[in-house]
Amino acid sequence: MNFIRGTVMAIVLLLQPIVLLFKLLFGRRAQDAPQQLQAINHSAIVPATVVADSEDGIKNSNNISQQSDATGSASSPSAPPAGSNSGDDDSISLPLPFAEYEVFLSFRGPDTRHQFTDILYRFLVRLKIRTFRDDDELRTGEGIWPNLVKAIGQSKIHVPVMSETYAHSKWCLMELSEMAKRRKQEKGHIILPIFYMTNPRDVRHQTGPYQSAFQQHDKDFDSGTVQEWRAALNEIGALKGWHVKSKDEQGAVSECVSDVVWSHLSKNDNFSDTDELVGIDDSVEAVVEKLSLDVGGAAMVGLHGLGGIGKTTIARAVYNKISARFDRRSFLENIRETQQQKDGGISLQKKLISNSMRIDYVAPINSVEEGRRIIQDRVSQFKVLIILDDVDESFKFEEILGNSGNFACGSRFIITSRNMKLLSTFNESRCKLYEVREMGPQLSLQLFCKYAFKTDSPPQDFTTLSEKIVTTAAGLPLTLKVVGSLLFREEKSIWEDKLSMLEKAPQKEVKERLKISYDALEYETKQIFLDVACFFIGMEMKIASYYWRDCKFHPVNSINILLQRSMLKIGDDNEFQMHDQMRDMGRAIVCEENIEEPWMRSRVWDDKEGTELLLNKKGSKQVKAVRADYHRSFLGGMKPGQFQNLPELRYFEAEFAEFSGDFNNLVPNLKWLRLHFHYNDGQEPTNFDMSNLVILDLKGSIFLTDDWGGWSQIKMAKKLKVLDLSHCTSLIKLPDFPKSGSLEMLNLSAEIRSFASFTSMELDIGNLWNLKVLNLKECALKRVTGGTIGMLKCLEELDLTNLQCNNWKQRVVDIGELPSLKVLKTIGVKHIPSYFESNTDDDEEEDDDDEVESEGEGIEKLPPSLKVLHTSFRVANLSELLELEELVVENCDFGLEIPPVGDDTNANSTAHMWWKVSKLKSLTLHKTKFIVVAGTAPSFDQLRLPSSLTTLNISNCPYLEWIPTLENLNNLTELTITKCSKVLEVRGIQGLTSLQSLVIDDRDDLIHLCGLADLMRLKTFEIKESAPLSREALLLNDDSDDVFTPKIILYHIDELQGN
Question: Where is the composition biased (Low complexity) (predicted)?
């Protein structure tokens, strides 16, 4: 029956273009022919099953009979406007695929079809985003309108490309009006307007070319329809969007739009930690049992198994489950790779000390022995949980941490390794072993489907293929995730091809199976993947993107593709992360370029090989990137002769490097130069071509001085985007920045400056008009010159933490005028101390006050675009910062003003509705109190924090007497209230329905906590310096006004509930 139905449908569709062609030849005027032919091409010649290709991006669907009834399924479609030429008997209904569209593109064909819209469409298709590309010229009658309504309704994101003649098309205006309706009526619809070669003001007010369009519409359509169109233009024209002013901007804007679209769509695809942990509950319980948490002494468990089998995932799950039971904890990742780096053991020790002591440990550790003594003296006294992830033979437990028996009673260590024999030697052979085995068929299928279909099981028509592919993965979670991500939204024919390739890969060769995903990438995405695998793990994405853009790549698009395919991760600090199996595969691919001769490969990441390459003056035009360590050799510094065979070098990284001699433009293509710990031997580098230099990183070059000859070369770097001079503590004066104004990121942060820097260092911001990121953390400046911060209109991030500067107040007075500032940190900013200032010969007029005002006055008005704010000053316009997501207020004597709750009828309704409309997710108060807005006298119930909060941390606030009610914080997952001795009551606990972690400590008196029994998701509940509490007391019924008096030291909820 299905065969007959399909055959009939195919015949009908084949006949349809013949009928239309007949009408074209005999029933239409000649000038209408091109338009009709386009309509035929676009909609009539469609197979019975809509299949994806590189042009359309439409996915597999059921047959068209399931999708053609657009009119019946549309949600209240608007009728075509009165006065239009409706009722054409040859109208074509454009078929829609069974799967919903995600993006609806609305545009005027003659303006943008072959330019901006086509570029944007291809960017979206590359990301496998299902996009409806509408074109007003392809519509031949009103019968298409219900299908357009359905496409708009299905799409999560609407992108109107409003060009000069956009308003001349009734179709474009109908679509725009429908978008505006959906945005108001249905939650989740997003409109991202693009103003292409037209002024947004003309769109909003229907002036300029839009005025002439509406003069005609007033004649052709009824007033109600025209007014509806005007309202839609006014509303959508006022939204934030992109203004394309020239054709040169089309590619950059398209990439940016596709990135924003993907970020919106990927929010629904991201897995929480628990979503990824398929079938590991038994393993977690087995490891916890081996840890013997109720037994004294220190214990150790080793997890062993193949790479990519899930050892780290299980270790992290155990860590999350039991970490609350320990005084201190630390998770040390990628130990095998860290050990290979210079001073890798010391780096591990510093991280362990920082995590365990809850500080950023910055004091120098000169040797592994010294680090071990510090760990034994300061860390081992605590009951600790330490995870040592991915260790190999180079890791010596007792050399790094000392004797495990010296750690406090109850300490636990979890170690993961591929080498079972190695683990058995730890802890005097008393390390308990647990083998992580391959996943079984059912769990493997479930994990695979989460990435291939975003569900727990495959569709019926993909079941057999899915099971066969899962079999080839041999139960390895990494392979399942990578292959599943690769096949997401692909056609069945692609699945069959990949299955054939997987079946040919050796059963035990994980890299061969992972390489299938690499082989499916386009050229530039492959290059970006290899760059990250070899050099950029741990690197901030924003910085690396400057490098790739100058290589004519599209990093945003490529990174999104790598994220989709589980080949790359982005950390909390926006840094690149990569599974060690993926990293090793990428490096193996580069090694295979030339097995015997590293200098013939594109990338030389091993600093020993890089140093040898330079020492022997080897190289080739294939070499694009090199890492070296001059400390390892007797190279005598970075000399011109070492680079004579590296004409295509784009990236160079070296430590302990001198930099001198006549380079005679040997490296004309160099884009990124990293010289850490660079020092000057008295000679100047000359003819070092920096014309293509995009990034210069001299971080930590403590011997770098003002008379270094390289500064004169930097002035010629007209393309320089990033300059990092952080921790260059010997600098007394700053260099002259390129006058081209190209610089976008400037880092001058330093923990220690010389005395002279306090008295003479100045920062001239006059040529920094394109600056996006300015980091002056811990910096000491005599003054800032060249203008105010408010003139840096492109600025997005500004860090003034602990800045000492004489005229900082005058320079930030207009900071509220910055339109794009998203991150602002001003904690601890102040003037230069008077004992330094008295030694200056400063002819600039002095300020009356040397320190920050005690009331916390600092910046009168903050920009409403802020997303992150860390400050010690009064936040004067908090109710206006509706985009703010993270707020830290520390040492603010003035306090944090809480706008009282009001109603929409109040004249100041924005402030009074702040708690409802704010996007604030994280609020931290330290040595700061809540206060009410001056001139108001609200009741306690009228003081509320934003309902959007997920984290609330209030610590060390001795003068804090009250906390706003928490009853509306139903999204809060973490609540910490510590060292707040005057707070006697916390109200609204019962409303914290999402709370998972509750910490209250350092209390000797009674705390009233009503509603704990309602916290069904609570996992960790910690109260210190009190007596134990019975389980019965914790789980009492709290429906009445009974007061719950917790007196426990620490409980994990699973334990309290007897699980």
Answer: 72-86
User: Is pLDDT of 20 > 70?
Assistant: no
Distance CA 778, CA 727 (A): 10
Non-local (6+) Cβ contacts of 401 within 8 A are 352, 372, 375, 386
Contact 720, 543 (CB under 8 A): no
For residue 867, how far is the Cα from the chain centroid?
Answer: 14
> Active-site positions?
175
Residue 77 pLDDT level (bands cut at 50, 70, 90): very low
CA distance 258 to 122: 10
Integer CA distances (angstroms), 714 to 650, 1007, 1032, in order: 17, 61, 70
- What whole-number distance in Å separates Cα of residue 92 and Cα of residue 138? 10
Q: What confidence tens digit (pLDDT) does each residue in 868-927 have?
A: 999 998 887 788 888 999 999 999 888 888 877 765 444 445 556 777 778 899 999 999
Q: How confident is the model over 934-946, as a mean pLDDT?
A: 73
In single-letter form, the type of residue at position 558 comes to S
Q: Which residues contact 223 (CB under 8 A, 6 or more apart)?
A: none
Alpha-carbon torsion angle 169, 174, 176, 182, nearest 10: -170
**Residue found by looking up tokens 């580098």 in the block:** 685
Q: Tell me, what DSSP letter sits at residue 813?
A: T
CB 91 within 8 A of CB 167: no
Q: What is the rounded CA–CA span in Å between residue 667 and residue 74? A: 61
Pull the structure tokens for residue 502. Answer: 């997987």
CA angle 55–56–60, rounded 5-degree value: 130
pLDDT, position 766: 86
Name the one residue in this structure whose structure tokens are 């056609």.
Answer: 491
Rg of the chain on CA atoms, in Å? 32
Q: Length of the chain in residues, anyone?
A: 1059
Residue 13 is encoded by which pair of tokens?
A: 């569709």
Highest mean pLDDT among 451-460, 725-734, 758-767, 931-940: 451-460
Contacts of 342 (CB under 8 A, 6+ apart): 607, 629, 631, 655
168-209 pLDDT tens trace: 999 899 999 999 988 887 777 899 999 999 999 999 999 999
Total Cβ atoms within 10 A of residue 980: 25
pLDDT digits (tens, 9 = 90+) for 809-868: 888 889 989 999 999 999 988 876 544 444 444 444 444 343 443 334 668 889 999 999
**With the C-alpha atoms ordered 392, 396, 400, 403, is the resulting torsion angle positive or negative?**
positive
Q: What letter would DSSP give residue 162?
A: E
Question: What CA–CA distance (Å, rounded) separates 567 from 564?
Answer: 8
**0.70 cut: is pTM over it?**
no
Distance CA 767, CA 955 (A): 42
The Cα-based distances of 479 to 120, 420, 451 in angstroms read 32, 22, 11
- Per DSSP, the three-state class of 419 is coil
Q: 684 with 660: CB under 8 angstroms?
A: yes
CA distances from 334 to 401, 419, 465, 1002 (A): 16, 15, 35, 36
**Window from 196-200, 313-317, 437-441, 913-917 with minimum mean pLDDT:** 913-917
Cβ neighbourhood burial of 706 (10 Å; 0-12, 13-18, 19+):
middle
Q: Which helix (H) or strand (E) holds 955?
A: strand 951-955
Q: Are 754 and 779 in contact (CB under 8 A)?
A: no
Percent of the chain topping pLDDT 70: 76
Q: Point out which residues pair with 105 in neighbouring strands.
A: 133, 159
Q: How far apart (Å, rounded) are the C-alpha atoms in residues 765 and 788?
A: 8
Pairing of strands 997-1001, 1020-1023: parallel
Q: What percent of the chain has pLDDT over 90?
A: 29
Environment class of 784 (CB within 10 Å of its CB; exposed 0-12, middle 13-18, buried 19+): buried
Q: What is the Cα–Cα distance from 779 to 828, expressed in whole angstroms?
A: 11
Give CA–CA dist 501/468, Å, rounded.
Answer: 12
Q: At 410, give phi and psi (nearest 5°).
A: 95, -5
